[in-house]
Amino acid sequence: MGGLPEHPELWAFLEALARGEALSGTVAAIERFGVFVALDHGPAHPLFPGVGFITYPELAWQRFVKASGVVQVGQRVTCEFLQFDTGNLEARLSLRAMQPDPFQEFADRAAVGRNCAAR
C-alpha cells in the first residue's frame, strides 16, 4: 500500500486515534485470522471490509473454538484501540479489553497463603 498519498483520509483517521480509546462499530466479516469491524466514524478501507481489526486472542478472555461463538457478522461492538497497523492501514482493536479481567478478579479475591482448588 502506498500510504499517505493514496489514502490520506484513512491515514488521518488512524493517526488521530489514541491508545485505550473506545471505538464502536459493526462486525463486517469473520475470517480465520481475525475479525474486521466497520467503525462508526471511520472511513472505508480500500481492501478490507472494515478499518478495525480484532485478532483472535483479543476477542475474549474465555476459550472458544470459532470467532462466531463470540461475535456475529452485523453485531454491534465496542472495542479498545490498541495500535495503528501501518502495514495494513488498520486500527488494531481489543474486544476483551472491554470485559472484566478474570485474572484481576482472582487477584482481588485471593489472599497470601490461601489454598486454592484447581482442576
UniProtKB/TrEMBL annotation:
CDD domains assigned: S1_like
Pfam families from the UniProt entry: S1 (PF00575)
Gene Ontology terms for molecular function: nucleic acid binding
Domain S1 motif: start-end pairs: 20-96
Gene3D superfamilies linked to this entry: Nucleic acid-binding proteins
InterPro entries in UniProt: NA-bd_OB-fold (IPR012340), S1_domain (IPR003029)
Domain of life: Bacteria
SUPFAM superfamilies, per database record: Nucleic acid-binding proteins
Protein name: S1 motif domain-containing protein
